[in-house]
Amino acid sequence: MSKKHSKPNFSQSQASEMVKRLFRLTPSEIHSLPSYSDQNFYVAAVEGGEYILKIMNSEHTMNPNLIEVQTYAMSFLQQNGLPCQTVLPTSSGHLMSLEEMDCGYGCQKYLVRLLTYLPGTTISKVPLTPQLLYETGKTAARMDTILQKMEHPHLTLLHRENFIWSLSSFTLLEPYISVLDGDPLQEVVKSVIHQYKISVLPKHPSFRKCINHGDFNDLNILVQPCESDGYRISGILDFGDMNSGYYIYELAITVTYMMIEHPRPIEVGGPVLAGWESVLPLNEAEKECLYVLVLSRFCQSLVIARYAVTLNPENREYLMTTSKKGVHILHQLWELGKEHVEKVWFQSAAQFSDGK
Fold first, then answer.
1. Sign of CA dihedral 102, 242, 143, 282
2. Which of 223-237, 254-268, 309-323 has the lowest mean pLDDT?
């Protein structure tokens, strides 16, 4: 969990100065972008090209080797046909620069990278047709199968013990559910944690291991219009939550966040699942746990957001993005029950695949 005051707070002029000094580029336009725990700036350069200046929070800055792996993963995926950002080296040839700044809480260090800008709009802003949901599931599966082939000297750093956003660490949420005191949601979260313990934990040995992007959400997927009147995926963003996990986790995360943007959330699972299984069919244990893992991700997102707001109240609107609709969807899924939801998802996936 990110600590209080770890998020950078550079001004536009400070960011502009960094771009000039580190990358020998002159910004013709620069403005800040929303972010969870880091700080991002859009940069258009006089010399040509569009970029994203990414300033890591002071906590993540303490692990530069992990950020190096994340940076390499983006490049590796791009080389293997998926649309990811790549890093522009500094004028001295480094992929990152360590900058020291007082953002109001004493001098702290922040790792800085300049990433290529990917065109498109976030998938949260376009209609989620069954075909686009299918492509999203397919892309998530392709991404994880490619990442599983990646080699890097610091790959073991992705075994992030007790990483709060990993679905393997779901039970670590228990100390934080006090942020829901007095909220009926608290009982649902407690019940989901119990279900996870009795139905998911025993199945872990049957899950297939992989490297997870870990945050394949509605704000981290870019799309562009295509000839068929629909949209195609044009970008995959934010590898900060990458970790060693299981394929089924990525699918559960993808279903969770696509549900948030759909007018009929329960209908999302079928097309996403069909797209996923066109690349990587699930085994029985994975199928059995998908429902509880989707509930688990909703709980993680809702509880961690509530806690994060207590640390960074000024970032409330962005932090609570999932919460606005997520609370209602979690209640709905819980009340419908595992058997009903699974029937909708798996029957819809089979019908969608038959029609392809």
1. negative
2. 309-323
